[in-house]
Design a protein that fits this description.
Layout lengths: L5 H10 L2 H6 L5 E3 L2 E4 L11 E4 L4 E4 L5 E2 L1 H9 L3 H12 L13 H21 L5 H9 L4 H6 L3 E3 L5 H8 L4 H6 L3 E4 L2 E4 L4 E7 L5 E7 L9 E3 L15 H11 L2 E4 L2 H9 L5 E3 L7 H10 L3 E3 L5 H16 L4 E3 L8 H8 L1 H9 L2 E2 H8 L9 H14 L5 H15 L3 H7 L20 H15 L2 H9 L6 H17 L4 H7 L4 H13 L7 H29 L3 H24 L1
Parallel strand pairs: 12-13, 12-14, 14-15
Antiparallel strand pairs: 1-2, 2-3, 3-4, 4-5, 6-9, 7-8, 9-10, 10-11, 15-16
Length: 581
């Protein structure tokens, strides 16, 4: 396997019609020279996403998502850039046996290296003489060698200094090892955080090891599980266990099953139910909800069959529902969790339970009956009001069906129930309302100027002649990258430059923000010159203010005169430049 070349990436993009590719994901309708569709990246009800066949770019006028065909596929399917390139290549019939790897952010490359090395040590331990007992334990739980390899399961030894000695001999810094949660530092010495435990690596969304869960297997310990503390690369709230392994199976099965424990997920995965994810706690963060939203499949909650699990199901279900996710529920009867259920009843029974999962609102209606005597008028009223509150923000059809159910089940008057609920008026299709993030005049001018520079090489010559300077270092770096690109390719267009920018995090983020913010459907040279002129005015005012501040601070008359002369000279140059504009 070799690294896919930039030329190959551009060949694939140039062979792909962005309208056809995006049209496979969402319905598009021609409107003028562009196509419009409902944006899949926010809660959109009117067509606010524009797709340009001419420029091979998409842009949402509400959430400001934008980019080329690879960026759309990457965002829609929540996959890496390389995976998106491969998907598009398959769609346009270009054979691709290459692998695309992004440059690693050197800030954390050492952290990933150490965690990967520690994971390999734990895996070697499991396959050594000391790992025989742990291997037997895993076999008893039907965790095969293949699953052990796939999840990179390992073992921390009884020797409290074993990992410490191996890592320090590799000259890894003790403070770094302590920061990563592998070693507990004790002065100039240290000892292993994980001792005599089965080690389950925790990987980030890209499959890199960022932490561990250590589970007891041959001892009694009140701490059944010990997890890595939060570190620079391990933020519990931005990770979902088994995401990297499960994402393709989730797309195939068109649903994701969310369980509580790592071992539950591993056990289900080993039993052939591979579209399974595990919580990193009993709640979901905004980041984790966003990860689930990007999967664009129903989420099946299968949490522990106890009171805490019931409460967590309601709390998490409500949050997912607020975020417009399709939520279902499986409550396992006769077992505490999926692991125990498989042992007692087998994986086929679990599959059957999944296939008969309940709609979340139906489950919650039953849940709200708990501890209520519905033959008692007051408690029945309380229950009915709680159900009406549950659906008050749902669509009209959901409200209608819910009211019909309650009316029939408790012999209540439908019209009286309906008066308690406000039905939403059907929204008429509204014209697209452009919402842009708050930016000052300088940022607006710079965003448009950079957009033009990334769109056509001719604008770089105008920029260098009429302006040639931006205040922010990141902005200047982007211009340098644009110059380098044009020098090597002889031309530039935004769709290809977006792919090129994928290799650098800072540049990529700037390009994505600009391409999403700017409406570049009608690029005209006179408009570019207006932005250049406006930015020159802003820079001149800033410069004048700095000079005034310097003069006010100076007490030397000669120094003040020198500052004034410099200011006059600079102003003359700017006036001459503006005359040319």
């Amino acid at each position: 396997m070799e690294l896919i070349s930039e030329d190959k990436i551009n060949e694939i993009r140039n062979s792909a019609d962005i309208v056809n590719i995006i049209g496979d994901y969402i319905p598009l309708k021609a409107q003028g020279k562009n196509y419009f569709g409902v944006c899949p990246f926010h809660d959109d009800h009117t067509p606010s996403m524009s797709v340009s066949r001419e420029r091979q770019l998409f842009k949402c006028f509400v959430c400001n998502k934008g980019g080329n065909v690879f960026k759309f596929v990457q965002e829609y399917e929540n996959i890496s850039f390389g995976e998106a390139v491969k998907k598009v290549a398959d769609k346009v019939g270009i054979p691709l046996d290459y692998v695309y790897t992004k440059k690693i952010n050197t800030k954390y490359s050492l952290d990933y290296e150490i965690m990967d090395f520690a994971s390999k040590i734990f895996q070697n331990n499991l396959n050594s003489k000391e790992g025989v007992e742990a291997k037997k334990y895993l076999e008893q739980r039907n965790i095969t060698d293949n699953i052990i390899k796939e999840f990179q399961i390992g073992l921390s030894l009884k020797d409290k200094k074993y990992l410490y000695n191996v890592l320090t001999k590799k000259n890894y810094d003790l403070n770094k090892l302590d920061d990563l949660g592998l070693i507990n530092k004790n002065g100039l010495d240290g000892y292993d955080r994980f001792v005599s435990r089965i080690m389950i690596p925790i990987t980030n969304l890209d499959g890199k090891v960022v932490g561990f869960t250590g589970r007891i297997y041959n001892t009694e310990d009140p701490a059944k599980y010990i997890n890595t503390k939060e570190t620079e690369i391990y933020k519990k709230g931005s990770i979902i266990f088994n995401y990297y392994n499960a994402k393709n199976y989730i797309r195939e099965r068109k649903c994701a099953i969310l369980v509580e424990g790592n071992m539950d997920a591993i056990r289900m995965y080993s039993s052939g139910i591979r579209n399974v994810l595990a919580l990193m706690g009993t709640t979901l963060t905004k980041e984790q909800i966003e990860i689930l939203k990007k999967l664009r499949v129903p989420i099946i909650l299968m949490l522990d069959n106890d009171n805490a699990g019931s409460i967590a199901t309601i709390n998490i279900g409500d949050e997912l529902l607020k975020n417009n996710l399709n939520v279902k529920v499986v409550r396992l009867k006769g077992a505490k969790d999926p692991d125990e259920y498989i042992v007692k009843f087998g994986s086929d029974a679990l599959e059957d339970a999944i296939n008969h999962s309940l709609n979340y609102l139906d489950y919650k209606m039953d849940y709200l009956k708990n501890n209520k005597n519905l033959n008692n008028t007051e408690e029945l009223i309380e229950y009915v009001k709680s159900v009406l509150k549950m659906v008050e923000n749902e669509d009209n059809l959901t409200k209608e069906i819910t009211l019909q159910k309650i009316a029939q089940e408790y012999n209540l008057d439908y019209e009286i129930l309906k008066k308690e609920l406000v039905f939403k008026k059907e929204k008429e299709e509204q014209p697209i309302k452009v919402i842009t993030p708050s930016k000052d005049k300088y940022q607006i001018c710079v965003s448009y100027i950079l957009y033009y520079l990334m769109s056509d090489a001719k604008y770089l010559k105008i920029y260098n002649k009429k302006l040639g300077y931006l205040k922010n270092a990141n902005e200047r770096n982007l211009v340098t990258e644009i110059e380098y690109y044009i020098k090597n390719h002889g031309k530039i267009n935004l769709a290809d430059f977006i792919s090129y920018a994928e290799n650098d995090d800072k540049i990529r983020n700037m390009v994505n923000n600009i391409s999403g913010y700017v409406d570049g459907n009608d690029l005209k040279e006179e408009t570019f010159l207006e932005y250049i002129k406006a930015l020159n005015d802003i820079l001149e005012k800033d410069n004048m203010q700095k000079i005034k501040d310097k003069i006010n601070k100076s007490t030397d008359i000669n120094e003040q005169l020198e500052i004034i002369n410099k200011q006059i000279s600079m102003s003359k140059k700017r006036i001459d430049a503006k005359k040319e504009v």
